[in-house]
């Protein structure tokens, strides 16, 4: 079972714990590639925003231990002229600024030259395919990823076409920049890399892995504000607990996500409109 801060799991499998003196910034390495280690290169105007939250907890420990690598690429030095201009006004007029294709193109080429194996090129963008567990799983099986974080009104369309960039969105809302979306994507991928969570089981029965939302979780105290933990969970009867959890996961999915529920039923050969003896 997941331990909130993960420490005991790390100890349980005999991993060295990282020194408290390591600062998140120092977790980012410009060192030569660690062979075969999944690597995220992130093109951004704000490299100092990395590792950000990825430097905390399990993803931070895994980064320090070299289970994955992170290389923010500062877009600024790729800028044009003495002032290193990155952006300009939109062709055709309108509000805001657009990141130039020549500037971004140079940064992408450098990132691709440094990449090994299968390394998808992704632009975080509200127009993209919605990030989901299937995308995260696919990226975890790749050798790494190159992420482009937009700012302002976005990037010149020609760079997207020229490099055949895939656009991925965090959801139907507009952020100020792609950095938060990039960190969300990296987090979702990195936790699927073997040994990052320190407990393979914990990714096996969580939400989306088996097509269902996760069952409710409880912990101590046994009674809180007059609410008791469901009795079956305290019974020690593992088979009954597993059945209860599956039934709860099915009920939650049916109530909250009819789309997932239909897909789950189709795969399992169930009728989505029939009561599943929940
Ligand atoms: N004018 C653009 C929005 C630009 S927002 C439009 O209407 O589509 C600035 C940058 O923030 C984008 O280039 C993108 O990298 C990032 N961003 C904004 N919303 C996002 C979302 N939902 N998912 C991923 N990235 C997003």
What does this structure look like?
The chain is an alpha/beta fold. It folds into 2 domains: 22-190, SPOUT methyltransferase, trefoil knot domain (Alpha/beta knot), CATH 3.40.1280.10; 205-268, Orthogonal Bundle (Trp Operon Repressor, Chain A). 32% of the residues lie in helices and 15% in strands. The chain is built from 9 helices and 9 strands. The strands form 3 sheets. It has a 5-stranded parallel β-sheet, sandwiched between helices. The protein has a two-stranded antiparallel sheet with strand order 3-4. Strands 8-9 form a two-stranded antiparallel sheet. α3 (101-114) packs parallel to α5, α4 (133-141) packs across α6 (179-190) and α8 (238-256) crosses α9 (258-268). Mean pLDDT is 90; it is low at 1-17. S-adenosyl-L-homocysteine is lined by residues 124-127, 149-151, 153-154, 169-171, 173-175, 177-178, 181. S-adenosyl-L-homocysteine (SAH) binds next to β5.
Which features would summarize this protein structure in a list?
278 residues; alpha/beta; Alpha/beta knot; Trp Operon Repressor, Chain A; 2 domains; five-stranded parallel β-sheet; two-stranded antiparallel sheet; 9 helices; disordered N terminus; binds S-adenosyl-L-homocysteine
For the residues shown, what is the average pLDDT? 90
Give me the Rg, rounded: 22 Å
- Strand residue percentage: 15-25%
Number of self-contained structural domains: 2
Do you know the CATH topology of the largest domain?
Alpha/beta knot
The CATH C-level class name of the largest domain: Alpha Beta
Strand ordering within the main sheet: 2-1-6-5-7
Look at the helices and sheets and give the structural class.
Answer: alpha/beta
Q: Rough shape?
A: elongated
N-C termini distance: 24 Å
Number of strands: 9
The profile of the biggest β sheet is:
5 strands, parallel
Low-confidence stretches: 1-17
Give the bound compounds: S-adenosyl-L-homocysteine
Order of helices and strands: HEHEEEHEHEHEHHEEHH
CATH architecture of the largest domain: 3-Layer(aba) Sandwich
State the fourth-level CATH superfamily of the largest domain: SPOUT methyltransferase, trefoil knot domain
Number of helices: 9
Helix content: 25-40%
